[in-house]
Structure formats: C-alpha cells, structure tokens
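I hope you will forgive my troubling you with a question about protein structure. I should value your view on which stretches of the chain appear to form regular backbone elements. Here, with my thanks, is the record as I have it:
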Amino acid sequence: MGKGILILVVGVAGLISLLIVNLNANTNRSLDTTLDMYKTTQARLISNSGIEVYLEKMRRDKDLTGNFMDNDLLGGKYNLYISGPDSNLTIRSVGYYDDKIHTSIVNAKREPVKMPGVNSALYISSNNVSLNLNGNVDINGNDHHMNGTPGTTASLPGIGVDDATDSAYVINNVKSKISKSIEGSGGAPSVRTVPDTTDWLGLSEDFIFSADTILTTGTYSSGSEFGTIDDPIITYCNGDVNFTSATGYGIMIINGNITLSGNFNYYGVVIVYGQSSISCQTIGNNGIYGGAILVGEDVSVQSQGNAQFYYSYDAIQLGQLKLKSSRFEILSWLE
C-alpha cells in the first residue's frame, strides 16, 4: 500500500515537472514572439516616421535631395534617400531597430503653385477707396514684357474695381494728366469693374504656407533682393514695410501697409491685404510688372514721383513655371 502511494506521488511529481518545463518553454516562446513583434513594429515606425520628418524638411527646403544616413530616432536609426524631379519624387526610408529592418517607399509630387488670377494691372477691392495720385503715374493694362516692351497677349483694364460706384469714383478723382496714363482695354482712362470672387485672405494664406522668405516690419534698402529671374520666390511680409532700391521676382504677400520710396522693381504678383485699412505709397522711381492687388476694408493709394504698374504676362508665367509649393501629393506608399 505504502509503496503504491509512493509510486503515485513520484508519478504526479514527474507530470507536474513536465508541465512546468513545457509551460516555461511556451512562455519563453511567447516572450520571444512578443519581443520580435515589438522590434518589427519599432523598425516600421522608425522607417515611416523618417519619411514624415523629411517631408517636413522638404517643405521648408524646396531643393532638398540626396542621401541622409544614420538618423537617430526612437532608439533606432534610419537611412533616407530622396531622388527624382518634383513631379515624380521617390522617398525611400530604411528603419533599423536592433536586428529588425523595415523599408518604406513613397512616390510623391510637389504640387505646383497656382498663380492668382490677375484681372488688371492694379486691382483694388475695398468698401472705401481713397486715391491721391501725383507725379508721373503710369498704370497700364496692356501686356508688357519684363523689359518694358509691348507684349502680345490680350489687354486688361489698367485699374480693376468691384463695382460701378468705385469705377466712377476713380475716374472722377484723378487728375486729367494721370487719367490719360491709365491705359489698357477700352482706352484711357481704363478703369473697369471686373468680376472677381477670389477669397484673397484664403489664397494669401496658401502662399504664406509656401513662403521662401518671411519679412517683418521694417525698411529694406538698397541691395535687398527677393528672388531673381532664374529663381523667383514667394515672399511674405508680416507688417508694414518700406522698400528702397530693392528688386524681386515671384509672388509677394504683404499683411500690412507698403511704401515704395526708392527704385523698387518687382516682377510677378504683389498682394497687399489687411483686415481693416491698408496704404500703398509710392515715392521715387518704382515699378511692378505683372499685377498688383490691394484688398482691404479701406484702401488708400498715394503716389509721388514715377510709379509704374504694368500688366505683364511674362512675369506672371515666370512664377507659374518656376515657383515651388510646399504641399505634396502622395501618389503611393509602399511597405
């Protein structure tokens, strides 16, 4: 009897030992599987996060391309490779975490900048317009090349406004000499109401998002350059600015007042907007070739000296062809 009980106890102990061994083995396998899944997930997260990091860098640096190695992230590393033209970008990221590797490949294209619709050489959109034009003011909606010679596209109004009341005000409140210098479609004075439903604030914010240069309130003097004919840029001015003897190409957005007090020449589109009142003053020899747009509750335009506002299809097209947006369209994301 006692011997039988002993054999039974020994047998049960053996079974328990075997169960414990198997349980420990299963636990270890589960731990290994869990750890393996964690490391695989981390490598994938590092790889995908690397692409997100560099998409943001590409938004800020529009010429960024090449290979970027050994980037530390989340306890691991990633290598990133950018190639291709803006219209067909390939961004490849290889994430490493411990012994795990994950590769993500994104095909994308940089969205083009959509130039604002220009309806006149000088467009004024406001509930209250104030004009004080003196000196030699030349506002011309006939197409001009950027060197000032006549262009070939259809003429636009010299000055565009929102309604007939504003048109009558402009015509009745400019001097005879200046009235003859407002040329464009329909003959001098070329002041016309133009259909325009553009959300200028929203459009300006889109351009601000893609700005290459951001200026604050101040005076920007001789030698200041805001883009070139080979490399036009988007310039955002947050505040009142005074330009003296400066040049620029592309798009300029100004949230505030603008004063042109020297030899300022800009080729492209200048948008001046404000929630309340804005003032555009020109003093000296200044020219905007492309289109000038003034939008605010109250708009005051004052000029002395020589001021030229010329519609230029070439200047606008330059921006359309060469300006870069900071927005991307993801065409595919492969892992």
The longest helix spans residues 2-60. Residues 122-322 form one domain. The chain has five helices and 19 strands. Confidence is low (pLDDT under 50) at residues 2-14.
